Amino acid sequence: MQKAKKLIAAFLKNTYKYTMRLSVQYLTFFFLLAFKSLYAQQIDYRKNYYPLINKAELAITEGKQAIALTNYLEAFNKVPEPFSKDLYNAALCAAISNNTKIAVVLCKSLVLKGTEITFILAQNAFRALEQSQEWQAFIESYPALRKMFLLKVNMPLRKELELMWARDQHYRIKPNGLLIYKDTIKAIDRENIRDLKRIIDKYTFPDESLIGVENPLEAPPFHSILYHHCQNTGNNSSSGLADFPNVLIDAVKHGQLSPHRYAAYADIQGKPIYGNTTFYRIGKNGELRYLKMKESEIKRMNKKRISIGLAPIGVYRKKVLFSLKNKNFIFDFNDSIIVLEGLDSKSIEEFLEHTNTIKAE
After folding, report:
1. What is the mean pLDDT of the chain?
2. Which of 272, 273, 250, 249 is closest to 262 using CA atoms?
């Protein structure tokens, strides 16, 4: 309890940029942003941030929101720029733990990352805070907070990335689009990845601090572009991660790219390295199963996972199973479950032979 109180005090002190009075000059705000950017290059999120986030998420799966909040605050105090999904989850933990002041501070930080007030107000977990003075003051401060966000974010760059995402999706979502428009999709993918490289060379990696986060539930606009680029290694039309030597892993290190998204890019290229897909099912409503693996293989995979800040396989599975039942929290689990369709009887038999079912708790 004493540790939690100290962390709360430190968090409130270190995050004054989220609770500053509206009369504070914007020049001071931008000076802090510039300082924060320089500071970020000295922090290795793989050691100082992701392990604490993993602990917080594990505590959430065990119904220990107060402990989760303590881990979140410790993580936030160690880095200049937390991820929006973590701020959101921490705000939920604070609301559930009846810590209104921390919940409001975290919601303000989300607004300064670009999250719309309508998204926050739509979350049932915050309803209990609506009658508090702190919450009413937060609502009143929203226009000024939103203005500060718009002044610091690169909105033209975000719009450009959103247009690239729209091109990525346009023909893929048409009926039989992947087959009918195969050549057109390949051409768009090449153009998109060329433009993404140009953006990274000019601005650095387009992380949350650069382009903002309108909705913490949604993937960033660059995600599908990188995902499809790495997926295209299967048909030899791209070199995948090799086209971004050190760029993406450095982005993970500096808190610009989620380690789970990086694992998704790596694993979609072929043989799983990080075990990003942890469960499979035959058909949409089939039972969840996981691959049988030797202990040596699990240790090898866990070593790779820990090296980029991911939780071990066992903990990861527990979090994925929790996220299927509880939709209140945001757990960033792309491709964690693969649905297998159209298997013949022999393939199904082989699948069952090489997988195990989840044991009932």
Report:
1. 89
2. 249
